[in-house]
Each structure stands twice: as structure tokens, then as C-alpha cells.
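Tutorial handout. Part one gives the primary structure; part two gives the three-dimensional structure as C-alpha cells.
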Amino acid sequence: MISYNKLWKLLIDKGMKKKDLMQEAGISKSTIIKLNHGESVTTDTLARICNTLKCDMGDIVEFVPEE
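Part two.
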């Protein structure tokens, strides 16, 4: 399972809203919805988010093993 909790915390730390991320990273509302639900997105999308937030992929996504 994929968790994007680190992404949401980073946005809070940077004082950004999801709408700001959408505009600055050039990602769609449907992508934000996928992220909200822990669904898979492309590595290109993750790279754009990382570029926008000036961070590494490990700073925004985490793999959580299913039990």
C-alpha cells in the first residue's frame, strides 16, 4: 500500500494547499483525488511534485506493507 501522508505534512509545513500544488506542479484534480485515496500515480507526476516542492520522492511517498 502507498501512503502520501508525508506529502500532506510537507504541504502543511510549507504553508501550501492542494490547489497550490495542482497549479504549481501542473497536475490535475483527478491526480490529487488519487493521492488522497492512496492510489498509484506515475513516477512523472511524483517527479513534478518533488521538483515543485524541492524534495526527494522519499519525502512525499511511503510504502506501507499490507498485513
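Part three, for discussion. Helices lie at 5-13, 18-25, 29-36, 43-53. The first strand starts at residue 2 and ends at 3.
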